[in-house]
Each structure stands twice: as C-alpha cells, then as structure tokens.
Amino acid sequence: MLSQFNWRRPEILLLLLALAMPLSFGVWQALLNNFVIERAQFTGAEIGLLQSVREIPGFLAFTVVFVLFLVREQRLAFISLIATGVGVAVTGYFPSTAGLLCTTLLMSVGFHYYEALKTSLALQWLPKETSAIWLGRTVAAGSFASLAAYGLVWFTSDRLQLDYTWIYLLGGGITVAIVAALWLMFPAFEQPHVQHRKIILRKRYWLYYALTFMSGARRQIFVVFAGFLMVEKFGYSVAEIVQLFIANHLLNLYLAPKIGRFIVRFGERRALTLEYIGLIIVFGGYAIVETATAAAALYIIDHLFFSMAIAIKTYFQKIVDDRDIVSSAAVSFTINHIAAVVIPVLFGLMWLASPAAVFWCGAAMAAGSLLLAQNIPALPAAGNEVRWGQGATSAAG
Q: Is 0.85 surpassed by the pTM of this model?
C-alpha cells in the first residue's frame, strides 16, 4: 500500500518546504538577542537598525516578479530557502554590526522571497475546494519545525554547551541540506497557467489588498508590542517567553489543520468574522490586563487567531485571474509589510505615553477588518469579488 502512495506531489513538496524554513529561522530568532549583546555589544540603537534592515526585503518583495524572468518559480523558491539557510549558517562568524547587517540581509532576502513564492505556488498548485485544508497543514508543519528548532537550541546550548557559531551553522546547514535533497528528489512541476511577469494592481482585488494591509498592521502590534508587554509589565523571563512560543506552536500543530477544515466548511467570511471579533476582545484585554497569567492566555489566543488569516489567501485564490497569482502574491507581501516599516516607530512613541493606547488602536484595526470582511461574498469568484461596491454582482452572497 505504501509503495503505491505517490509522495512526489506538489502539496507534499509544499509541506516539506514548510518544515525546512523554521529550522534555520527559528534558530536565528531564538539566539539573536543573546548573541548580539554578548558577542557584538549591541545597544537598542543597533538592534533597531538590524530589525529595520531585516524588514526591507519584505517591503521590496514585489521585485521577485522581475527575478522570475531569469529563474523558474519553483527553482527560485529552492534558491531562496538555500539563501536563508546560508545567511543563518554564517551568522556566528560575523559578530559585528556590519557583519550582522550583511548576514541578516542575506537571510531576510531569502526568507521574504520564499514566503512570497510559497503563497504563489500554493495558490497555483492546490485545488480551490481544499486549499484551506492544505494551508492549515503547512502551518502545522511549520509549527512542528519551530518546536524542533527551539529544542535544537536548548539541547546544543544547554546540554552540549556548543558555541553560537556551531549552533547557527547547524541550524542553517539543516535547512540547506533539506532543500538540496528536495531539489534532487522532486520533479519540476508544471505551472497550470502562464504567469504575468509584471507588477499588477487591479481594482477588483481592492478588498484583498485592504484585508492584507490590515493584517500586516495588526500583526506588528502582536509581534512588537505584545511580547514587550509581557516583559516590561509582568517581568517574564527569556525562559518563560520561550515557553509561550512552545505553547503556541503545540496548539498550532493540533488546531491549524482544523482551522483549514473550518474555512472549507463555513467559508472565508465567517472564519474572518470569528477571527476579528476575537482579536477585538484580545487587544482590549491587553489594554486592561493586570495579571501575568491572564496576559499569557491573551498572548496564546492572539497567536491562534492569526492562523485564520489562511482565509484571506483562499478568498484571493477564488477571485484571482490565474495568470495574476505570482505578481499579486508578491505585491500583497509588499502591502503587508508597509505597516512593518511605519507602525513599530509610530506606536513605539505612543507606547511612551500610554501602552494601553497601542492596544486600543489594535482593537480599532480589528474592528475595521471586521467591517471589511463582511464584504466577502458567500461564494467568492472572479466577477463576484465583493458583496457591495467595485466588483459586486447580482450573484453576490
């Protein structure tokens, strides 16, 4: 029976690539703060610069369209992941501001190009009827790999007492080895439709662009300020923060595939409605929470709701012209990162006056997203992109 199972399929490749990425990025993320302070003597100014440089490739993700003139999409995804692994692998050899800026830029270019290409390939390869289920499985696979990366960092640093250089080399090297094996083992899958090789912005995709921008804005509040709240207000240690990460990924392993099936059964509008109502409550909770335990519960719930963002991708898959997928995925990744450039700085200043105000703004963003989500038709399709406004038809649900 097992011999009859065809594992050399596009969806299996997507799952394995989803496993490969966090094994290097998770190691980089887990070690970064300790490494830059102990070895590179970073202050807040240098770490801020480093994080800004890391976000630049995300903002410029649309340039992947032009690279595809030279390299096929699947091959470029392999190359991007290898660049990520190499960037992480050599990080330990360059404990200086200039060195870390260079290795981080290499890692980040690979990471953000891969993320844009992953979305594009998934929307092209996966059947529209069940794509949410497979996307949920890739989220679960990424969570499993992240747990493995955290375990690797703990074992090699705490038990084996390895130097940072060797841990970075091991994490990045594993990703490179996995991707090289996948490159050799899997065939070059044909793209169902010839893709446009230019930047495309279409009026009828306006709701997708708006939902994507709002998703990126809210995510910055979670990534930058929710964790900061845990440390500044409640005194969480590094170990306790890592425990929260582990709890998040363990729950994702179980729930992400179920979220995918929920989207298939109930539709994108209902899934996003549930997410945004939940996020309004969570962000409001952050603003008024007074106990460390309640804050931890909010943090975990917050992370789980973001898995429902799968519904934005499946909504777009149903309305997009099949030839626009590559360009639109790259452009949407740039739109998602506009907030990453602006919000940390502006809301950081707001934080000095009132941390609660930052989270009330997050609740307002979630409310705006909730209103936008109500414009998703019951049966999204090309020509039936929204219920009201540009692109609405009599068939709208």
A: no
